[in-house]
Design goal:
This protein has 593 residues and is α/β, with parallel strands linked by helices. It has eleven helices and 34 strands. The strands form three sheets. It has an 18-stranded mixed beta sheet. It has a 13-stranded parallel beta sheet with strand order 6-9-11-13-15-17-19-21-23-25-27-29-34, with no helix packed on it. The protein has a three-stranded parallel beta sheet with strand order 2-4-7, with no helix packed on it.
């Protein structure tokens, strides 16, 4: 038992002393950095270890990326605890066996008992932290001597497993929603549910209901064959449930150690998983109308998936369990979504949405509406093109900087200012700013098209590529009033465009009333440029242009465009656009209508 106690001592010291993962240990212990496998470190190693320790699986690329991203706002300690929360329905004895089996240190009766008793003492709520500590400790025992040398072979195997799993999950080519069997686990059995009450488990008396330690598949393709009275224990491996729900049905079976669930949902059906353990992926494969997933753990990735690309025909409402405070994070995946697909999420502040297909050249874009009334930050990632309308009263950040597929996004502002960041492809933004909130746009790389109103002094950075900026509602009732009281105020109330390249990018101005281009003389433009202040230059530009005209002039290091309303002098109803750092504007680079 000496070796057992040493193997568990780091867990005991960390949890019983209330210390966080990654804290400095006393001199008699190795540091965590020394214990980690050389090939993988940090959050990537931690997330990989949790997946292997609990599920013995290498998650698909999209799940892995989303899980790693979910660590950032809450830290690895909270993430590990949340990851383990999905398994607390298991007994301490079952948890001990599961973890140690997946770490390949069984049979070892003494170790299994010690870990069981330890989980009793610290509480199952901490099993995620315990699992990560075990994985980290085992990782450092390759060259162990003395009593701990019995774990050296398992440590070598564990480090190889973590390295291989990370390599698989971090490869974008492995981004399909179906996670292949791990290298050490063959495909298991395929079992079918029946119209009766079924109990699927490794302890079932009949082979047709008996799961294995491998990657099993349980199917209920006939609507009604999966019921709330059914219980499924997938045992070891990465197990999959595929089921069809009848229209209007509410089904909440007992699921244990079933990692991947695919539901074909009938109209207005509801699938409950509040008592389930171990689910890492929950997919709606198709639907005949609106459907709901209820009681979903925040560590579970939820997706809309269609192999045919025809998409669904209704909204999927996802009700996450355990949402509290102001920093909850949920992960969604769109896989060949189309038609009237929509994902509705409430009570979650941070939403990660990944767009994916079979490959980056997989036909049409994912098309789905994202409704998240409590979300403050929405992160869009993936390699597949995405067409979406984002709806959320609290949204202040939409970040698509990691999206490599083309993005087509519509968004209507609320009363909150919002920052929108484009991806690496040719993006299209249609922004309704009728609320008057300010929008800050960073379009990113690629040839982008931005359409936005003049309801506020927006800040727009075009980035690389051949870009088109459409400004609408200029010099109209809905446009932001210019501050004509002093030069600084005038600058603050102007729309500012950065990274505009004359001769490459294009600016299209649409005023409330048809507006033509003014044709000032060189002498007039020189007089405007020589004005003593921006306010004086703009006022002179207004009288030079005349009513319902748009005039280009340079002041300082920047180029400005003033859009005059029906009054020939500068007033609050006019609109001013600043092209920062542009010394001259080619006539072909802008248009006025």
């Amino acid at each position: 038992m000496v070796g057992v106690k040493k193997f568990l001592c780091d867990c005991c010291h960390t949890l019983l002393a209330g210390r966080t993962l990654g804290s400095q240990r006393t001199s008699q212990h190795y540091s965590l950095e020394e214990r980690m496998p050389v090939q993988v470190s940090g959050t990537y190693a931690d997330v990989t270890m949790l997946n292997r320790a609990f599920n013995d699986q290498s998650p698909s690329h999209n799940v892995y990326v989303n899980q790693v991203a979910a660590v950032v706002p809450i830290g690895i300690t909270a993430f590990a605890q949340r990851f383990g929360a999905g398994f607390t329905a298991l007994t301490e004895d079952a948890l001990s066996t599961k973890l140690l089996m997946n770490l390949s240190v069984l049979p070892n009766a003494g170790l299994q008992t010690a870990l069981r008793d330890y989980l009793v003492s610290v509480g199952k709520a901490n099993v995620g932290i315990v699992a990560l500590q075990l994985g980290r400790i085992l990782s450092g025992l390759e060259n162990a001597t003395g009593d701990l040398s019995v774990y050296a072979a398992a440590a070598v195997k564990w480090n190889e497993e973590v390295t291989a799993s990370h390599a698989y999950s971090s490869n974008p080519a492995n981004s399909g929603p179906i996670v292949p069997p791990g290298p050490d686990l063959p495909v298991g059995v395929t079992l079918s549910l029946t119209a009766d009450v079924d109990a699927i488990s490794p302890l079932a008396a009949q082979a047709k209901f008996k799961t294995t330690a491998y990657n099993d598949t349980i199917v209920a393709t006939t609507a009604g064959f999966l019921s709330s009275a059914d219980s499924i224990d997938g045992a070891g491996g990465v197990d999959t449930l595929r089921a069809t729900l009848a229209a209007g049905a509410t089904v909440a079976p007992m699921l244990q150690s079933v990692e991947r669930v695919f539901i074909q949902a009938g109209a207005k059906s509801k699938f409950g998983v509040s008592g389930a353990t171990g689910i890492t992926e929950l997919w709606r494969e198709s639907a005949a109308g609106p459907a709901e997933f209820d009681g979903v753990d925040l560590a579970t990735t939820v997706g809309i998936r269609s192999i045919t690309g025809s998409g669904g025909s209704g909204a999927l409402t996802v009700v996450f369990a355990g949402t509290s405070g102001g920093a909850d994070t949920a992960n969604l995946v769109l896989f060949r979504a189309a038609g009237n697909d929509e994902v509705i999420v409430d009570a979650v502040e941070n939403l990660n949405v990944r767009s994916q297909g079979f490959s980056s050249t997989d036909g049409a874009a994912n098309t789905a509406r994202i409704t998240a009334n409590a979300a403050e930050k929405i992160v869009l990632t993936g390699e597949q093109a995405l067409k979406t309308t984002v709806v959320g009263a609290q949204v202040s950040v939409i970040d698509a900087s990691a999206l490599t597929g083309a993005l087509s996004q519509a968004f209507a502002t609320t009363q909150k200012a919002v920052t929108i960041t484009g991806g690496r492809g040719p993006d299209t933004f249609v922004i309704n700013d009728a609320s008057g909130a300010q929008v800050i746009v960073a379009a990113g790389e690629g040839g982008d098209t931005i359409t936005i109103g003049a309801g506020n002094a927006h800040r727009i950075t075009l980035g690389g590529g051949v870009d088109t900026l459409n400004l609408t509602g200029l010099a109209g009732a809905a446009a932001k009033d210019l501050d004509t009281s002093f030069s600084t105020g005038l600058g603050w109330s102007a729309i500012v465009v950065t990274d505009f390249v004359s001769g490459t990018d294009r600016l299209v101005l649409a005023a409330e009333t048809a507006t033509a281009k003014a044709t000032p003389t060189s002498l007039q433009l020189a007089g405007i440029s020589d004005a003593s202040s921006l306010l004086d230059a703009t006022a002179l530009a207004a009288t030079t242009a005349g009513a319902n005209k748009a005039i280009v002039f340079r002041y300082g290091a920047d180029t400005y465009i003033l859009v005059n309303d029906a009054v020939a002098t500068l007033n609050a109803n006019d609109s001013l656009v600043k092209l920062a750092g542009v010394s001259s504007l080619a006539d072909a680079s802008w248009a006025s209508a």
